[in-house]
Structures are given as structure tokens and as C-alpha cells.
Amino acid sequence: MTHETSMKRAAAAHPKITLLMVLCGVVGLAASGAASAAPSVDDGPGFSIKYSPESLSTDAGVRALYSRIVRAAEEACPIPTGTRVITSRVRECRAQSVARVVHQINNPRLAALLEDNAKSS
Asked: Could you tell me which residues are beta bridge partners of residue 3?
């Protein structure tokens, strides 16, 4: 069984990153099997994270999903054009995006990883 979590975008996507996310989604679907019956949690337009609940039974699977969530949040909350500085607004947008998706997935191991990463930031 596969789940999909969505959230609102903060800005328009870059085509290469979007293509990469689509490719990762296709690979993830192929690996997880029953993707056609994927239920979703939808907050409106934004990014989607597809995952297999079985992958959350291992530390490696939890870390891999968390990394995908962080990358998606980075795309949804990009650094302003013409700068390389991550503003506090962008940092907060990313943190809230990751926290929202982790909350929607509702997995204790994933929540613990979020908490650990928040403490080290």
C-alpha cells in the first residue's frame, strides 16, 4: 500500500527539479508495488510524497523518506532568485513544511527523526 502526502507550494518549481521529483516518484512507485490505489492527504496544490508504510519499519527507510521530504520542502520554499542566502522566512517555511508532512504521515520513528534534526539545527 502506498500513501501520498501533499502540501501547499511557496513558489513556482524549477523544471529540472520538477523532472527529478517526477522521476523519483516513478522509481518509488515501481519499488513499492501497489501505487494505483494510493490514498492521499491533500492540502491543495503543492508537492506530493509517495511512500510505502513498510519502508518506515527500518531506520534506513525512515531516513530516506525524511530526506525526500526535506528536498521537497526545499523546492516548495526556494531561496529568492539572485541570492544564495537562506533567509529566516525561507528557513521557517521549510521547517513548517517538513513538520506538516511528518505530522500527516503520523509515524513515531519519522516524528523522532524530525525532533532530533530540529534539536541539532
From this structure: 51
pLDDT, tens digit, 9 for 90 and up, residues 10-22: 444 455 554 445 4
CA distances from 35 to 46, 69, 85 (A): 19, 18, 38
Number of structural domains in the chain: 1
> Cα separation of 110 and 121, whole Å?
17
User: Higher pLDDT residue, 115 or 25?
Assistant: 115
- What predicted TM-score, i.e. pTM, was given to this entire model? 0.62
pLDDT level of residue 47 (50, 70, 90 thresholds): confident
- Give residue 18's domain range: 3-120
What is the C-alpha to C-alpha distance for residues 106 and 104, in angstroms, rounded to an integer?
A: 5
Q: Report which of 49, 38, 54, 71 is spatially closest to residue 5, judged by C-alpha positions.
A: 49
| Residue corresponding to grid cell 494505483 | 36
